[in-house]
Amino acid sequence: MPLITEKTRKNADKCKGCAIIRLRNIDKSSVIKEMGEAFDMYDEASRAMEAVMRVSCNSCPNVNDFVKVYGMKPYEYFKVEKQK
Question: Nearest CA to 25 among 51, 53, 44?
């Protein structure tokens, strides 16, 4: 088990307030979803948003601290289930 210092925990908490994660949550429950469904492109837009989130999380300097604290990447931890 890796040593979890106060600095490590603060860096991991920065991931919870990340703009990309908030943007993804907006995408799942807002006008963007309704517009995408109206144009029958919601699945493609949702996959694109998922790809943007994964790339940004993998390039973030805080992701290693998040993995130390929570045991998984932020995009796995904040995973949103598909609604049918």
Answer: 53
